[in-house]
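This protein record is not my work; I was only asked to verify it. Would you go through it and say whether the fold makes sense for this chain? Here is the record exactly as it was handed to me.
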Amino acid sequence: MSTLPAPSPRPLRPRSNGWTLAKQAEFLEALAETASIVEAARRVRMTPQAAHWLRRQPAAAEFRAGWDAALAQAWQSVEASVLERVLNGEIEIFERDGVRVVRQRPCAARLAIHMLERAMAAKAGVVPDAGKSTETGK
């Protein structure tokens, strides 16, 4: 069950190849799952350019809100995955001389430090921009 806002209940305008409400909802679900505009658009048989066009329309406020919520949800999934990696390390499976080898490695120190910095910033009420590096500010 999704926690994403529903797209606007009124279509922008009838189009033979346009964004139906069902297509908007499916796009937002795929965006939340993949964090990829290209992949989400492909799944609904639309182009990324068409998705961006719809997002820019004045009457598409609900779609924009859904888009933002979908990306926020995707980012939470990434953070959860990285946090698990920090806490539990990584399992590496490979074959050596015909023998399957499984070993657990701790996560990279840089990743652990980055996650600690994010946790401390969140505790202080500061949410770093997901697109910026905390080291360089870029």
